[in-house]
Design brief:
With about 250 residues, this protein is of the alpha+beta class. The protein is about 25% helix and about 30% strand. The longest helix has 20 residues. The radius of gyration is 18 Å and the shape is globular. The model has no long low-confidence stretch (mean pLDDT about 90).
């Protein structure tokens, strides 16, 4: 078995595929078969069935955007609270996207990347659990880079090219992102969780602003205060003071 905890950095090896069903599926199959370890990155130019949150499909124009999955050792984290991993990944994505899109880049709870009121990317984390141990995770990241025309079913997409007017080398961008992930991952391993959570909340989408949420059939306005250490959205002016992920839907109003 290839040990998840081997001392390799994120992005080594870097597997580049022309086309695959899903980088997350490919990486998880490699991990489950003991053919890949911590640090392995899987990149593709085209996903035929990219995966999003809640079983949704990630729609992306072939050859235009970033589709990357990385395998991470998570044995040092608590399975009871998986939010720190989500924070670490979201910050790494924010680090890189904001480097080019500048200061209007935000993290929408729990881990979407937004620019102004438009979605630039998303993160899907899938876990490998053996017995009672959280042994590893496959972190899938999709970021819109060079696409300028999007499927009408997507509500509010935006790409880095639309923001900057520039084309990006997607492979180079993926490798740069691996470097950002390595930096934030090491911070998490070093126990700098409070520092990471503080940064996450500093970059939080709509913090201290009124938003509209929907819970079941009821919609209501409230103000975002932040996100707690266990991943709950903290608000004021709502029927309750906090919400777990999946408990409410955002209603983005133009």
């Amino acid at each position: 078995m290839l040990p998840l905890h081997v001392k390799s950095i994120i992005g080594q090896p870097f597997i580049e595929l022309t086309e695959v069903e899903s980088t997350n599926i490919y990486a998880m199959e490699q991990l489950q078969a003991n053919l890949a370890a911590h640090g392995t990155a899987v990149f593709t130019h085209h996903q035929t069935a990219g995966k999003g949150q809640h079983g949704k499909t990630w729609l992306s124009e072939p050859g235009s955007n970033l589709a990357l999955s990385v395998i991470l050792d998570t044995e040092f984290l608590s399975m009871a609270n998986q939010f720190p991993l989500s924070v670490m990944v979201a910050l790494a994505c924010h680090d890189l996207f904001s480097k080019y899109a500048l200061d209007e880049t935000r993290i929408k709870w729990p881990n979407d990347i937004y620019w102004r009121d438009r979605k630039a990317g998303g993160i899907l984390i899938e876990n490998l659990i053996r017995g009672s141990k959280w042994q590893g995770s496959v972190v899938g990241i999709g970021l819109n880079l060079n696409q300028v025309y999007f499927d009408e079913s997507l509500k509010n997409p935006v790409s880095l090219k639309q923001i900057t007017g520039k084309n990006f080398n997607i492979v180079a961008f993926a490798k740069e992102l691996c470097g950002c992930l390595e930096y934030r991952y090491q911070q998490l391993k070093e126990g700098k969780w409070e520092e990471l959570l503080l940064l996450y909340n500093q970059h939080l989408f709509k913090k201290n602003e009124p938003i509209k949420l929907k819970k079941e059939s009821a919609s209501f306005y409230c103000t975002v205060l932040g996100v707690s250490a266990n991943g709950e959205l903290l608000v004021s002016g709502a029927p309750q003071e906090s919400f777990r992920f999946g408990e409410v839907e955002w209603v983005i109003e133009s």
